[in-house]
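User: Before I run my own analysis I want an independent prediction to cross-check against. Here's the chain; please return only the C-alpha cells and, at the end, one sentence I can use as a sanity check.
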Amino acid sequence: PRAPQPAEEKAQLLQNSEYQERMVESTFLYLTLDLPTAPLYKDEKEQLIIPQVPLFSILAKFNGSTEKEYKTYKENFLKRFQLTRLPPYLIFCIKRFTKNNFFVEKNPTIVNFPITNVDLREYLSEEVQAAHSHTTYDLIANIVHDGKPSEGSYRIHVLHHGTGKWYELQDLQVTDILPQMITLSEAYIQIWKRREEDETNQQGA
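Assistant: C-alpha cells:
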C-alpha cells in the first residue's frame, strides 16, 4: 500500500477527537494583547533602540483567523479568537511581563495607538456586526509601567471628560499632558469607551 498523502493524512487525523476543532464561547473581563518578542538593537552610538508595534497588529489576535499556539507539559494546541459582542467599556492588558522559574522579564516594546476612533468592527463576525451599530472606541485611561519589572513605578493618564484635557497622575502629583505624549509611553493597561452616535469628540486629537 502506498504511503498516505498529506491531505489524506490530515483527513485521517481529523477523525480523532483530539484533533477536531471545537468552538467555545466564554466571557472576558479584559482582553490580553501579546507583544512580539523584543530584540533590542543598538545604534552606532551604542544607544538602545526600542522596537515599536502598531496597536492593530497585536489586536489581530481577535480577528477570528490568526492562530496562536499554546503549549503545556503534555500537549500543544492552536487557538483562534473572535469577539462576539462589544461592551460600553473595553480594557486592554498589554502583556509586558513574562515569568519563568527564576525571574520576571519585561518587554519594553512601544505600542503605537491612536487615542480616538479605534474601530473594532472587523474583529466581529459578519452576523454579529449587524447587531452592533456602535463599534468605535476612544481611550479614556492609560496605565504606564516605568523601569525594571521588580522595582518599577506606575503612572496613569486620565481624560477629563468635561474639558477633553488629559492629565497624568503619579502618587499625589497631577500634571496636564499633551495627548501625543501618551502614545510614547510603555502602556500596560488601557480603558476604552465606546462612542455613541450622539457623542462629539472633545479630545482634540
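Sanity check: The chain has four helices and 16 strands.
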